[in-house]
Design a protein that fits this description.
The protein has two domains: 7-282, Jelly Rolls, CATH 2.60.120; 284-429, Jelly Rolls (Sandwich), CATH 2.60.120. A hairpin with a 4-residue loop joins β8 (121-129) and β9 (134-143). The protein contains two helices and 30 strands. The strands form seven sheets. A nine-stranded antiparallel beta sheet has the order 2-17-22-14-11-16-9-8-30. It has 439 residues and is mainly β.
Length: 439
């Protein structure tokens, strides 16, 4: 028998709003017991199960956990056996040294064979170690098949999905999220899900965060409003699958992929309450704050989400965007300055063009400027920005992003050997000539 029943509290794809909220949601009213009147056994013959995203004794403000009321406990599956990792890598990321060269890649092609999003992952670079509780990995994905009889969870870290082409439908234990290019989604460590492709194929980026869970950055002198607002984040409502058959449960554990046989859908949660949940965000809701005087603001002013490190003000991972915005600086050079940074910067492009690059950096492409590696505008951009008429300009039709980290990224063999690597990237800056005049 292979029967699927999907039930939601309302018709269509529904969401709860807010970031880090203590949510409660039921696909069947009464599925979640309440307080001291809770029965000895959960309602409707369900099993109670808790998933802890932090240590039990983590401070209350940082503690993440959710209670599930599900048809079977998660322990019901066959033993795991190690699977083919394909192009997925964990620490030490093939053992290559961190590379000081500026690097850039063309977009990956869509696969010729039927490939789901997990098989379509390719690790480009990473840093730190999931077991050490810090660092991250950056993956590209290119897929042309939905996960129908396969489910997945990541024991190493949370996944931040950034689509560039095609929608992703994330069917999770806690309900369903659909994201399109221009939106993002985060699936916490340990949450089971499968991914359908409503448009038949999809391509994009994934940041795998080994450190503290992504959260909203502090606003400091900005005050109480600006950047990403909590109300614009959306969490799923309860929805469940009732499905029997021969399925595969895959997981990523300590950098390796593992498979287990499972005779039912693990997305069988009928109700849940807690604050550990997948969520989505529309990047168009970001409230941009930009200069109206001189100089170029630090990219930190565009931070959507941050994973803090043990050093105050220094991120394990910052997710930063460069969205449509006004360029209004007075009598000053407006694009990003030439730059060396103690943080390492991985960039991707979702749509349009990035204002610091005239060519070579296209949607679906990537660049890496590692710790203290100099980078900046190409010669054409510099010449244009140094001479153009300074009037208000709205930079439209663009969306670039950055995965910034305090670690030095280590590239994988795939990253260094793929024909997607632009080996002439260094030529971008060779047209910058000496213009110094001592008078």
């Amino acid at each position: 028998m292979d029967k699927r029943v999907e039930q939601r509290t309302n018709t269509g794809l529904d969401y709860q709003t807010g970031f880090g909220n203590e949510f409660q949601t039921e696909a069947i009213p009464g599925a979640v017991p309440r307080g001291r009147n809770s029965p000895q056994k959960a309602p409707f013959g369900l099993y109670a199960e808790i998933i802890s995203g932090t240590a039990f004794t983590a401070p209350r403000a940082e503690n993440k956990r959710t209670w599930f009321y599900r048809q079977r406990p998660s322990v019901v599956h066959r033993p795991f056996t190690q699977a083919d990792n394909k192009l997925v890598r964990g620490a030490p990321f093939d053992g290559l040294p961190a590379n000081p060269n500026q690097m850039r890649w063309n977009p990956p092609k869509m696969p010729e064979r039927q490939t789901d999003i997990i098989d379509g992952l390719a690790t480009l670079c990473g840093a730190g170690d999931a077991n050490g509780g810090g660092g991250l990995a950056v993956h590209l994905y290119a897929a042309n098949a939905s996960m129908t009889d396969r489910y997945f969870y990541n024991a190493d870290g949370e996944f931040l999905f950034v689509p560039e082409t095609g929608r992703l439908s994330l069917l999770t234990e806690m309900g369903n999220l659909e994201i399109r290019p221009g939106e993002i989604a985060v699936v916490p460590r340990g949450i089971k899900y499968r991914v359908e492709l409503p448009d038949g194929e999809a391509r994009g980026y994934v940041a795998e965060n080994f450190g503290a869970a992504l959260t909203l950055p502090n606003l400091g002198p900005i005050g109480s409003n600006g950047l990403a607002n909590p109300r614009d984040f959306k969490a799923p409502v309860a929805a469940y699958e009732e499905r029997e058959g021969n399925f595969r449960l895959s997981c990523k554990f300590d950098g390796f992929l593992w498979d287990a046989e499972i005779g039912h859908s693990p997305l069988d949660v009928v109700g849940w309450h807690g604050n550990l949940t997948p969520y989505k965000y529309d990047l168009a809701d970001f409230m941009v704050i930009n200069t109206v005087s001189f100089d170029h603001c630090d990219p930190s002013i565009f931070t959507v989400l941050t994973s803090p490190s043990a050093v105050p003000g220094t991120a394990n991972l910052d997710f930063v965007i460069f969205p449509p915005r006004w360029m209004v600086g007075e009598n000053t050079y407006r694009p990003p300055w030439f730059h060396r940074n103690v943080m390492a910067e991985f960039m991707g492009l979702i749509t349009g063009a990035y204002d610091g690059r005239e060519e070579g950096f296209v949607p679906g492409g990537s660049s890496l400027h590692n710790r203290m590696s100099p980078h900046g505008n190409d010669a054409e951009v510099y010449a244009k920005a140094s001479t153009q008429k300074l009037e208000p300009v709205f930079l439209d039709g663009t969306m670039a992003f950055m995965f910034e980290t305090c670690f030095a990224y280590r590239p994988t063999n795939f990253a260094m050997e793929t024909p997607l690597l632009q080996k002439n990237y260094f030529e971008t800056w060779q047209g910058l000539k000496k213009e110094f005049k001592n008078s």
